[in-house]
Amino acid sequence: MKSAAIDLSRHISLQIGALKLFEIWFYIPYNMKDVRFWLRIWTRIVLGIVVFVIPTGSQLIYAVRLIMSGNAEIQEVAGIINLILTELLVSLRLLDLSLRRHRVSELAEQLKCEEFQFHSPAQKRILEKAVDSSRRLFWILLCSCSSDVLVHVVVVPALHNFQTLPLKMDLVYLDVNKESYFNYLCAYQILYKPMMLATFAAVQTLPWATMTCAISQLDVLIYNLENIQDLVKATVAEKQCTENEAFRDIFKGCVLHHCSIIKFVNTIQNAFGGQLSATLCLSTGILGTTAVQMLSIESPLKNLTEVIWVLAYLSIFICNLFIDCYFGNTITVKSMHVSTVIFSCPWIELPTTLKKNLVIFIAKTQRPLVITAAKLVPVSLDTFTKTLFVLRLSRWSSGHKCDFRIRGLGFDSWVGQSIAGLFSDFRKILSSSTDSENVPGIWQ
Predict the structure, then answer these.
(1) Which residue spans traverse the membrane (predicted)?
(2) Of 385, 414, 377, 259, which is closest to residue 326 (Cα–Cα)?
């Protein structure tokens, strides 16, 4: 008797739930003639303006006016720009996801396909572990981002008795420093952040969840091929057939499973390719401006709270970029390993017809599954390394020689030295306690 099937839709249920919580999920469960449908539409318009347009736009206006004034400090400008880029990234990813919502629906349907369901304990353990990982990543990112924003928006301003707004804004027609507006704007800046954070966590981890599912399916396929002899024996005992017939049935199932995985990965590419390209481009800017902000903090020993916030902010975005590239790289590596596992099967004694089918399948699996950002750049560890190189983190590696290779699925020395060099350089700044007058203005 078969055991209960695993609900693979749990991979993406938290992300969809977060978007539904704030009424920005793409599908409205009401008819256009229903008043509730138009109420949802107006709610989304208002939330879109209040959460995604006004904060980003007002910060952008403030940054432009600050730079044009000629009195800007590089730390302040870098801090404002990285917040603008972060909120812009969330808005662009949400917009892209809404435009490709039919692809997301296809992914949700493919998660329910029969080829992705398995019932042996070992196979179910692989799938369950992947589901748990997907959900855990969502909560980790949401909690880490919430803690970081809490420090920036609440803790740091509170230490200064809220003398200034948590976020630098210019509302053009309103004086943000005027006492009659100040308290309301301060509350507004704190209250819009939860929705922004939940949206960021949802759109950031949705590709991770689907890629985790694809990786787990490749793991199950590899497991089935590695243990095909045991599966043949079990099938012979269950169906009372010959070994060749049992092998044919299992092999057919593996071929169908592989075709479903290819279709699923292609749908991931179509659904999230634009988002991944936006992430690669804007994350480079965010990491660069955050690093500049961190290295230009005035008297860092006296501003440890701000130092911790900026370090956490930088770490979160480096980790996000790495996880994107790591999952994409893992899919490629595991898909290439499938052909090796097939060739290792006991195929010598098989009938000629099965041998021909096996050779065709080996040839098909030799083409790797590659997820690309807008079909231009592969999402891989090599891309992650090159992104760090663009940021010129090698300059902060304290004279160590650079090694641009990544061996297997782990870090090689270049990435580790670059990131370690960043924090090493920052420790030097902490120890020297740079005075404020030594920090040049942006035009100096």
Answers:
(1) 42-65, 77-95, 137-160, 180-203, 276-295, 307-327
(2) 385
Quote the CA–CA distance of 257 and 353 in Å, as a whole number. Answer: 20
Candidates 110, 87, 293; CA nearest to 197 is: 87
Report how far Cα 99 is from the mean position of its chain's Cα atoms: 19
Q: Is the sign of the CA dihedral 199, 62, 72, 188 positive or negative?
A: negative
Rounded (10°) angle between helices 381-390 and 243-295: 10
pLDDT at res. 416: 47
Contact indicator for 403, 414 with CB cutoff of 8 Å: yes
Per residue in 72-120, pLDDT tens? 778 788 888 888 999 999 999 999 999 999 999 999 999 999 889 888 8
How far is the C-alpha of 131 from the C-alpha of 6, rounded, in Å? 9
Q: How many residues does the chain have?
A: 444
**Highest mean pLDDT: which range of 75-89, 253-267, 412-426:** 253-267
Amino acid sitting at position 232: V
- Report the b/e string of 17-45 with b at 16+ CB within 10 A: ebbeebebbbebeeeeeeeeeeebeeebe
pTM over 0.85: no
The pLDDT, as a whole number, for residue 406 is 33
Contact 267, 110 (CB under 8 A): yes
- Given a cut of 90, whether residue 135 has pLDDT beyond it is yes
pLDDT (0 to 100) of residue 263: 95
DSSP string of 263-309, one letter each residue: HHHHHHHHHHHHHHHHHHHHHHHHHHHHHHHHHT-SSGGG-HHHHHH
Cα distance between residue 337 and residue 29, in whole Å: 43
Rounded Cα–Cα distance for residues 442 and 71 (Å):
8
Give Cβ neighbours of residue 5 (< 8 Å, ≥ 6 apart).
117, 119
Say how far apart CA 10 and CA 112 lie, in whole Å.
11
Return the amino acid letter for 287: L
The residue among 201, 371, 384, 200 whose CA lies nearest residue 287 is 384
